[in-house]
Amino acid sequence: MDAKTPQRTATKAVNGLIVDAMKKCGVSDADATKIAELMLEADLIGADAHGVFRLKQYVERLKMGSTNPKPNITVKRTAPATALIDGDNGMGHLVVAKTTETAIEMARETGVAWAGCKMSGHAGAAGVYAALPLKHDMIGLYAAVANANHMPLAGGAEPLLGTNPIAIAIPAGEEPPLVLDIATSIVSYGTIKNHRLQNQPLQDDWMIDPKTGAPVTDPHKSAEALLLPMAGYKGAGLALIFGLLAGTLNGALFGRDCVDFNLEPGKVTNTGQFVLALDPSRFRPLAEFKAEVDRHIRELRDTKPLPGQAVRLPGEQRAKRREDRLRNGLALPPQLIAQLDKLAADLGITPLAAR
User: Fold this and answer.
1) What is the pTM of this model?
2) How many Å apart are CA 71 and CA 87, to the nearest integer?
3) Of 136, 132, 127, residue with least CA distance to 108
4) Are residues 58 and 99 in the same domain?
5) Which end of the chain has fewer CB atoms surrounding its CB within 10 Å, N or C?
6) Where residue 168 sits, what CATH number does that domain have?
7) 133: number of Cβ within 10 Å
8) Residue 89 structural domain
């Protein structure tokens, strides 16, 4: 196997590594198990820059004290269908999971509910949390303030916006659910970091030099470059709006106030996110709704493709990828395995290959 070939690694081994790393950093057994479950889910669905890829960074923050290993996460229900969660600077996975659980619980009573959180942290892939309400036959929507500003306003030359993602999940019947998970930047910054780790060039429409506007394709120069918004001013506008709704509304940080968790690992980020849960049975019978979603999925999938291409629907590849990776393991690049092996050695825990 050459140095660039991804290596299939059993999900059980990856899960165990995450659990042990979290516990070594003072996280409780139950919380470590929950964090590992949510991190692994990001890898299973193909969000490869948002799962175990982030473990080294999470461990660093826990060891430096900028993330609280034993948070007291509190819920303040402010009305029948709204709540504000204070994450006590805990791991974002725990805070957003609690936020999602709260939204689902309220939506059972009210049909629709909005839960926001503050004092949270980086929580991985947005689609993981939007999809949690699917288990309860609900529609989920998630948005967040990203943990670093890499993107300018439309026409701007300063990094004042994060990649502030949005994810929406809609249940289906026999078909896989529809799950849209997108950054408001042209690609996620995790993708940029992954390219840097593997020394792969960036596409020339991803990042620009803020002084000249010229494309930046060297991944090792990405820290000084601007990440472009998707669809120009539209992506920048969405990032702005989601930043206000997920950050400012909850008392979390946004804009110039944001702490860059890449450059300032010792600082508290006070990240903000929100989750909306919607019960479709409040609009029409659930089975009828799911059957109609199935019908539309099949009709859309069967439409005429462009030459050499296939018609794609949000979530379709996600379901196939998850099934494959559960069966055959995660495809981890050698550079990441080397990084995780060093982390395991530093923490005094079992490396991946020995699990």
Assistant:
1) 0.95
2) 7
3) 136
4) no
5) N
6) 3.30.1370.60
7) 27
8) 71-185+230-302
CB 320 within 8 A of CB 333: no
Cα distances from 78 to residues 71, 199, 253, in angstroms, run 21, 48, 21
pLDDT tens by residue, 313-348: 998 899 899 999 999 999 999 999 999 999 999 999
132 to 56, 169, 289, 343, 344: CA distances (angstroms):
26, 9, 19, 30, 30
Residue 124 belongs to a domain: yes
How big is the chain by its Cα radius of gyration, in Å? Answer: 20
Same domain for 215 and 258, yes or no, is: no
In a domain, 333, yes or no: yes
Q: How far apart are CA 281 and CA 295, in angstroms?
A: 18
Q: Which of 3-12, 14-23, 125-134 has the lowest mean pLDDT?
A: 3-12
Number of structural domains, the chain? Answer: 3
Flag whether 307 is in a domain. Answer: no
| 174, burial (CB in 10 Å: exposed 0-12, middle 13-18, buried 19+) | exposed
Q: What is the distance between the alpha carbons of residues 161 and 152, in angstroms, rounded to a whole number?
A: 6
Cβ neighbours for 327, distance < 8 A, ≥ 6 positions apart: none
Query: Nearest to residue 37, comparing CAs of 115, 131, 177?
Result: 131
Identify whether the C-beta of residue 125 lies closer than 8 Å to the C-beta of residue 45.
yes
Write the CATH number for 350: 1.10.1530.10
Residues 6 or more apart from 90 whose CB is under 8 A from it? 31, 67, 68, 69, 70, 71, 73, 119, 120, 121
Burial class (CB in 10 A: 0-12, 13-18, 19+), 193: middle
> Which contacts (CB < 8 Å, 24+ apart) does range 130-133 have?
130/167, 130/168, 130/169, 130/179, 130/181, 130/275, 131/167, 131/169, 131/177, 131/179, 132/97, 132/100, 132/101, 132/104, 133/100, 133/103, 133/104, 133/107, 133/169, 133/275, 133/277, 133/278
Alpha helices in the chain (DSSP H): 11-24, 29-44, 55-64, 92-110, 126-130, 189-197, 233-246, 286-301, 316-328, 334-347
Count of CB atoms situated within 10 Å of the CB of 49: 21
Q: Look at the chain and count its residues.
A: 355
- Residue 2 clears pLDDT 80, i.e. is over it: no
